[in-house]
Design goal:
Elements (H helix, E strand, L loop, with lengths): L7 H20 L6 E3 L7 E8 L5 E9 L3 E7 L6 E3 L5 E3 L11 E4 L3 E2 L4 E9 L8 E9 L1 E6 L5 E2 L4 E9 L2 E2 L6 E5 L7 E4 L18 E6 L5 E12 L5 E13 L10 E6 L5 E12 L3 E10 L5 E10 L3 E9 L1 H4 L6 E13 L2 E18 L6
Parallel strand pairs: 12-19
Antiparallel strand pairs: 1-10, 2-9, 3-7, 3-8, 3-10, 4-5, 4-9, 6-7, 11-13, 13-14, 13-17, 15-16, 15-18, 18-19, 20-21, 21-24, 22-23, 22-25, 25-26
């Protein structure tokens, strides 16, 4: 009988990623965790977890233990107890944690639509020394959640902010929805609506997100200030009732005066008879901070190909920088034999721990026509 090799490392990595996601959801809900200190010599610790009446919801329970556990028991009100061997729960050993002093981390299976009332958690553990701790984090979540995320740093006007949305149903991402992002710029500017896509791709055709249930859109603000982002969805609960959902947040946009009047330079080098031998593009910019600044300029070519030029400046400090790049004869020959008056321009800043599009303009008017109809041999 043929056997399939076990990719155990990959399975472990996936399990740890799932634990990390769920721990983040739980930890984000309770700023003050409950710290229990078992008495010296104690081998069992119990605590009551209050559950409030709610519609479709789920209960998440996570705890840290500096003690070795022998048993985990969860007693719902007026129902049989739930028992788990510690080895069969989702857990992260203390050696793999950023704060190993908290002990091993455990995450119990989520309880869907838990009965209201006190739920008693009882942990059987090794004999306590008097200095051991059990740190409990609980969260009662509605069935549906919209998690809307925007860049944590201000986006410069003319730049591009990547907006991310996850639609959760009992903690599981849903991909059968069609979310739309509404953006209200500051002042009296009209609102914009942007469809969010699960297969959004960058300018090189690479897919931005690979996880199911992630939706993205790119927003390019044209004025500084606070831009209000919102997503509204209506889903159906277990009783076929509509459940309206809304996620809102503000995107801060910083002023970038240099983005309001972008004017690249273009010089042509001609050969005998006035044929085009090469072309040099230039762009002056005001670097807002140190980092590697990358310029790409794209001209549409024949057969859906493109001629893309690039340049970079490693800015050691904030201040003026200049980009220059040359369209050489081998690239000229890829162009269709016609005049070019527009190009797509993008400027990316790569700094420690991040990369962001600080400016993008499609159909940027060139200062003069690029005559690709007469190229030198």
């Amino acid at each position: 009988m043929a056997t399939t090799p076990c990719n155990c490392a990959e399975r472990l990595t996936q399990a740890l990623r799932r634990v990390a996601l769920l721990l983040a959801l739980v930890a984000g809900a309770q700023a003050a965790p409950q710290v229990l200190r078992p008495a010296s010599g104690a081998q069992q610790t119990s605590v009551d977890i209050p559950v409030e009446p709610m519609g479709d919801n789920r209960l998440l329970i996570q705890f840290d233990s500096t003690l070795t556990l022998h048993s985990i028991r969860l007693q719902p009100p007026n129902a049989p107890a739930l028992n788990w061997p510690p080895a069969l729960t989702l857990s992260v050993p203390r050696q793999q944690r950023q704060r190993p002093e908290l002990g091993d981390a455990y995450l119990l299976p989520q309880q869907r639509n838990p009965a209201p009332g006190p739920w008693r958690l009882t942990l059987g553990h090794a004999k306590a020394s008097g200095r051991d701790t059990l740190t409990l984090l609980t969260r009662q979540l509605p069935r549906f959640e919209l998690l809307l995320k925007a860049p944590g740093r201000p986006v410069p006007e003319g730049g591009v902010g990547l907006i991310d949305l996850r639609v959760l149903d009992h903690g599981v991402a849903r991909d059968d929805v069609r979310p739309v992002l509404t953006v209200q710029p500051p002042g009296r500017a009209p609102a914009e609506t942007l469809p969010m896509q699960s297969d959004l791709r960058n300018n090189r055709g690479q897919r931005i997100g690979i996880e199911a249930g992630q939706f993205f859109t790119e927003y390019q603000p044209r004025q500084p200030g606070a831009h209000q982002l919102s997503v509204d969805l209506t889903l159906t609960d277990s009783l076929q009732r509509p459940v309206p959902l809304q996620a809102r947040l503000n995107l801060q946009v910083s002023a970038a005066p240099e983005a309001r009047d972008v004017r690249p330079s273009l010089s042509l080098q001609t050969g005998p008879g006035g044929c085009l031998n090469s072309a040099q593009f230039g762009l002056d910019w005001q670097a807002s901070e140190p980092g590697l600044w990358l310029l790409s300029l794209r001209l549409a070519g024949a057969s859906s190909e493109a001629v893309e030029l690039s340049a970079h400046v490693d800015a050691k400090s904030a201040g003026p920088v200049r980009f220059t790049t040359t369209l050489a004869p081998r690239l000229l020959k890829r162009l269709q034999p016609r005049d070019y008056s527009e190009a797509d321009l993008q400027l990316v800043l790569t700094a420690p721990g991040r990369s962001e599009i600080v400016y993008r303009q499609r159909g940027l008017r060139l200062p003069r026509t690029l005559p690709a109809g007469s190229i030198c041999d």
